[in-house]
């Protein structure tokens, strides 16, 4: 059977009709529309169909034949030449147990109980979309220029004002460096500090992505245990007194949710000032403290200029913005600006200007208040569903997650992977530990993505999976 051809010729184009016909048939063959063995119209029939001279089509067929794309035979007509079967290349999976496998597992979704992403039902999406569309139009009509590598001044002003009110940080807009989220801020800070080969304290357990970032910066990591008062300063001074860097989550420790006590904050700052060490403050979820007012930022107590404060809009607006910021100590302002200009530019101006207007008009603070009320209710509902099945000491509210502790030796990774098949994505606690000896097993259930409808059904499924894979909750 002759394969029909759908060729569109442009007689006003500079490209000759012969070349247009050749190119159209060749594209159909190479894309698989015309399969090997498919019969083509004779050049006389195709010429009549296209309304061109027969010699025009004949010349195109001759070029295709010379390129071994078609085979002409008096017995069987003109057919597509045999070709190797196209190999569909699949995206290679990361090596089992590698960082990228863990990264992809922790960031895929959207899914129930996923951590690190905000609830969508409370965000004023229509309002923000309108503000952002206006910013995009303004950017498109503006004169082309290279933007300020520190970030748009309007946004830096809004961030500085917000930090003064909400986090107790007294800083100027010139100290603010806008970044592409927390990870970009961490990378920028590590480049500025240039501490390759030095020791660094890292919370144990602590954010796996931070730990990998420090390793990539060629720092020697010293895991420091975390207790009810936060990172154990005494342990750090005993085991790694020569450290030049500390990375902490003092507002709500990631993942255990504890707040660094005032005594330890002051000791950490005194030690950093005396030893010349630097402190990177990951302000993880601090503005979303669900019980009472958030503790002031560690940077608000810093009088020696040793704290680099990193914040992000990923947990409050959306991780798709890839928008965050750094508060640079005065001593390092120029160095941060230089590195940002040459190696780490911020996101595009439209995203920044839209966020600035969102903050300036008061929408951001109102959004945070709504989030806190919604998350507090979600957390209580989730705990109420789980308490009948698990011992009270096995359930802990840890900031914007509920930690379900599992017996040592239970594979929390296997349970998390099993739950993914049912649209649930808790984070295994063991992934947050650097040492397998100190590692603990558990599941971190994100509150923000906890379902408001059919919560009981999701929790029943969770209990069934946990029971089937070796842990027996209360019946």
Automatic annotation (TrEMBL):
InterPro entries: Aminotransferase_I/II_large, HTH_trans_reg/aminotransferase, PyrdxlP-dep_Trfase, PyrdxlP-dep_Trfase_major, Tscrpt_reg_HTH_GntR, WH-like_DNA-bd_sf, WH_DNA-bd_sf. The keyword Transferase does not apply. Transmembrane segments: none annotated. It comes from the Bacteria. One of its GO terms (molecular function) is pyridoxal phosphate binding. In the C-terminal section; belongs to the class-I pyridoxal-phosphate-dependent aminotransferase family. This is GntR family transcriptional regulator.
């Amino acid at each position: 059977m002759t394969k029909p051809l759908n060729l569109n010729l442009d007689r006003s184009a500079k490209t000759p009709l012969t070349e247009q016909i050749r190119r159209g048939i060749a594209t159909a063959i190479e894309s698989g529309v015309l399969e090997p063995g498919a019969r083509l119209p004779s050049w006389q029939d195709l010429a009549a169909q296209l309304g061109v001279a027969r010699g025009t089509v004949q010349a195109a067929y001759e070029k295709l034949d010379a390129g071994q794309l078609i085979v002409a035979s008096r017995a069987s007509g003109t057919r597509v030449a045999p070709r190797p079967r196209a190999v569909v290349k699949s995206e290679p999976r990361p090596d089992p147990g590698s960082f990228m496998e863990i990264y992809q597992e922790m960031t895929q979704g959207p899914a129930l109980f996923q951590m690190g992403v905000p609830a969508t039902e409370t965000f004023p999406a229509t309002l923000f979309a309108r503000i952002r569309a206006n910013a995009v139009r303004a950017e498109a009509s503006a004169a082309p220029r290279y933007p300020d590598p520190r970030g748009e001044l309007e946004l830096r002003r809004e961030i500085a004002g917000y930090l003064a009110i909400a986090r107790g940080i007294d800083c100027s807009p010139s100290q603010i460096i806008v970044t592409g989220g927390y990870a970009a801020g961490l990378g920028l800070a590590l480049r500025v500090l240039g501490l390759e080969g030095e020791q660094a304290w890292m919370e144990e357990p602590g954010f796996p992505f931070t730990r990998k970032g420090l390793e990539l910066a060629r720092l020697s990591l010293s895991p420091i245990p975390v207790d009810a008062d936060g990172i154990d300063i005494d342990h750090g001074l005993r085991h790694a007194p020569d450290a030049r860097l500390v990375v902490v989550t003092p507002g709500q420790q990631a993942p255990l949710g504890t707040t660094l006590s005032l005594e330890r904050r002051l000791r950490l700052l005194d030690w950093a000032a005396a030893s010349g060490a630097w402190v990177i403050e990951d302000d993880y979820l601090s503005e979303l403290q669900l019980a009472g007012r958030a503790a002031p930022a560690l940077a608000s107590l810093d009088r020696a200029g040793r704290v680099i404060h990193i914040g992000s809009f990923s947990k409050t607006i959306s991780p798709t913005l890839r928008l965050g910021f750094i508060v640079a100590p005065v001593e390092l302002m120029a160095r941060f600006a230089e590195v940002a200009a040459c190696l780490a530019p911020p996101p595009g101006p439209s995203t920044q200007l839209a966020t600035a207007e969102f903050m300036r008009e008061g929408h951001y603070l109102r959004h945070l208040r709504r989030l806190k009320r919604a998350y507090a209710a979600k957390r209580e509902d989730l705990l109420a569903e789980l308490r009948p099945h698990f011992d009270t000491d096995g359930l802990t509210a840890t900031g914007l997650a509920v930690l379900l502790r599992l017996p040592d030796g239970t594979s929390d990774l296997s349970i998390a992977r099993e739950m993914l098949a049912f649209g649930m994505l808790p984070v295994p606690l063991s992934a947050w530990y650097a040492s397998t000896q100190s590692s603990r097993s558990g599941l971190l259930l994100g509150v923000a993505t906890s379902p408001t409808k059919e919560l009981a059904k999701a929790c029943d499924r969770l209990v069934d999976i946990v029971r089937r894979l070796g842990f027996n909750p209360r019946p």
